[in-house]
Specification:
Strand 1 and strand 2 form a beta hairpin. The chain starts with 5 loop residues before the first strand and ends with a helix. The strands form 2 sheets. Strands 3-4-5 form a 3-stranded parallel beta sheet, with no helix packed on it. The protein is α/β, with parallel strands linked by helices and 109 residues long. The longest helix has 14 residues. The protein has a single domain, classed as Alpha-Beta Barrel (TIM Barrel), CATH 3.20.20.100. It has 4 helices and 5 strands, in the order E-E-E-H-H-E-H-E-H. Helix 2 packs across helix 3.
Length: 109
């Protein structure tokens, strides 16, 4: 497994390390509706040492990231969900006040 640089972040729940290099999941093809990032691709990234993934609903990669985390947990590649850090985005098409909460809930799902 590769060693990826980490930094410590603090929150109300305490301090924890986060890898400073994230695997981006966006692609022009993914946005066009062709799935380029698959759970198996992400599993291989986890095996290589990645623990930080950058996604967004508009990339259509939130589900494959979630599936890969479930599989990594089942296979013992990671011990808990807290071993993985995910960055996602609230896209501008969901930024109207009445859309924000449902968009966030969908990303978390």
């Amino acid at each position: 497994m590769a060693t990826i640089p980490e930094m410590i972040i603090s929150s109300s729940e305490g301090a924890r390390p986060i890898t400073v290099i994230a695997l981006g999941t966006a692609s022009d093809l993914g946005i066009a509706g062709i799935e380029m990032v698959t759970p198996s691709t992400l599993i291989e990234a986890i095996k290589m040492g990645y623990r930080h993934f950058d996604t967004a609903a508009v990339y259509r990669t939130e589900n494959p990231v979630g599936e890969a985390i479930e599989e990594a947990l089942r296979c013992g590649l990671i011990k808990s969900r807290s071993d993985i850090f995910i960055t996602t985005k609230l896209w501008c098409n969901s930024a109207d006040r009445h859309l924000v909460l449902s968009a966030i809930k969908q990303s978390l799902k």
